[in-house]
């Protein structure tokens, strides 16, 4: 089995670079199809979140990973010379282990955050519907989901997480103090935005207003929060009255510019406003930082607040890392072991060929026997071979199922009369 991971994350690249590489969700099926049509890979899943853009693929064995990486950078219009250093490449078991760490939130900005499991599931669903997945990635993704469930059930990693939602609340409270007299505008319906909005409401937010490009989706979300819904065309008018603005949308373009907010702040008489841009690419112009009484944050800023309870999370993360290492080794070994099943199946066939050849060699002697005696010899030799091979073949299949490829190879070589020291 061949597996490759290529990508960048909050650990290797600033948000300015991540947002350029991040595709619009609606583009992903087309990109996966393009990868296959260009012969870069036979299967692929593209994971794009606020913190990472990663491609998991079964590559064309005739090309190198650098060619796939160049294709990814081209999609984002990025210079290969400046951006290539931010990309990481993992192959085979290392790629599998990386996926296990990602879905277990060990590589997340906030260790233990729960959103990544749903994000991986969604990326897998999109790829499957685009017919970009096959037997390898079906198995790999199923294995990753199993490992994530195991870690959450056997460690306290999720219990000790300080979520992005809580971090957003802390930022707002640092600026505005008591939130019970504050109102907020949520632009978009992304997962992180909903988390922050839910936490804000939990702290007694006086009013929540929601707007979205799709009005029906905003209405559905508003029902969950008991919020009001306004059309996007009224966004600037509502900016004048709210204290907190959350953006969590895949619009891919600026929705709140410096010029717009300057007008709004003059009409607000510079009453403090907190803007939390959880969109990637960002939709709030970074230049607004220069406007008086405006406090803008993005996903990279939230990590400074979310990084609390570090010691407890670290202990849980160490336990989770041990599970990931063990499961990645076992899973990969099992997959490799399965590649030897055809070789195991050849052992009885080879033994039968040897038995037939020996019977043929003794044919002159066997001709002296009656037909019933020859049948008895044939059955007896067949039974002897079967009994001799039963235990080693059963043990070989056991080693394959356990992923113990090292001992399996030794056994196969011994059964074939080969010396592994040669």
Order of helices and strands: EHHEEHHEHHHHEHEHEHEHEEHHHHHH
Mean pLDDT: 86
| CATH topology group of the largest domain | Beta Polymerase, domain 2
* First-to-last CA distance: 27 Å
Q: Strand tally, please?
A: 10
Q: Strand pairing plus helix content: what structural class?
A: alpha/beta
Tally the structural domains.
Answer: 3
Number of helical runs?
18
CATH superfamily of the largest domain: Glutamyl-tRNA reductase, N-terminal domain
**Which range does the strand content fall in?**
5-15%
Helix content percent band: 55-70%
Question: Sheet bearing the most strands, described?
Answer: 6 strands, parallel
Shape: elongated
CATH class of the largest domain, named Alpha Beta
Work out the radius of gyration. Answer: 30 Å
Can you tell me the residue ranges where pLDDT is under 50 for at least 5 consecutive residues?
Answer: none
* CATH architecture label name of the largest domain: 2-Layer Sandwich
Biggest sheet, strands in spatial order?
7-6-5-8-9-10
């Amino acid at each position: 089995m061949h597996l490759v991971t290529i990508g960048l994350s909050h650990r290797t690249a600033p948000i300015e670079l991540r947002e350029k590489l991040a595709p619009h969700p609606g583009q992903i099926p087309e990109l996966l199809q393009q990868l296959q049509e260009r012969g870069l890979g036979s299967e692929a899943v593209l994971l794009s979140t606020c913190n990472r853009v990663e491609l998991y693929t079964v590559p064309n064995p005739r090309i190198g990973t650098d060619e796939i990486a160049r294709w990814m950078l081209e999609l984002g219009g990025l210079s290969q010379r400046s951006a290539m250093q931010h990309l990481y490449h993992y192959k085979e078991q290392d790629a599998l282990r990386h996926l296990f760490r990602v879905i277990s939130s060990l590589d997340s900005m906030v260790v233990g955050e729960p959103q990544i499991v749903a994000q991986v599931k969604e990326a897998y669903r999109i790829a499957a519907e685009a017919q970009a997945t096959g037997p390898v990635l079906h198995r790999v993704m199923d294995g990753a989901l199993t490992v994530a469930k195991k870690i959450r059930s056997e460690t306290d990693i999720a219990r000790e997480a300080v979520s992005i939602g809580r971090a957003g609340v802390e930022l707002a409270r640092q600026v505005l103090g008591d939130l019970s007299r504050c109102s907020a505008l949520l632009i978009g319906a992304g997962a992180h935005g909903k988390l922050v909005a839910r936490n804000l409401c939990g702290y007694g937010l006086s009013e929540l207003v929601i707007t979205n490009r799709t009005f029906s989706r905003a209405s559905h979300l508003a029902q969950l929060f008991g919020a009001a819904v306004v059309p996007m065309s009224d966004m600037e008018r509502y900016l004048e009255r709210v204290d907190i603005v959350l953006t969590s949308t895949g619009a891919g373009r600026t929705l709140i510019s410096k010029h717009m907010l300057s007008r709004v702040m003059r009409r607000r008489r510079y009453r403090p406003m907190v803007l939390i841009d959880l969109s990637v690419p960002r939709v709030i112009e970074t230049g607004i930082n220069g406007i008086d009484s405006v406090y803008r944050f993005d996903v990279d800023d939230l990590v400074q607040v979310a990084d609390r309870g570090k010691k407890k999370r670290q202990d849980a993360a160490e336990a989770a890392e041990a599970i990931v290492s063990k499961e990645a080794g076992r899973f990969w070994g099992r997959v490799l072991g399965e590649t030897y099943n055809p070789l195991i199946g050849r052992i009885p066939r080879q033994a039968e060929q040897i038995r037939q050849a020996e019977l043929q060699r003794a044919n002159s002697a066997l001709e002296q026997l009656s037909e019933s005696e020859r049948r008895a010899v044939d059955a007896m030799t067949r039974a002897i071979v079967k009994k001799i091979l039963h235990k080693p073949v059963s043990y070989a299949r056991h080693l394959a199922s356990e992923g113990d490829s090292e001992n399996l190879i030794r056994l196969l070589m011994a059964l074939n009369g080969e010396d592994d020291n040669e």
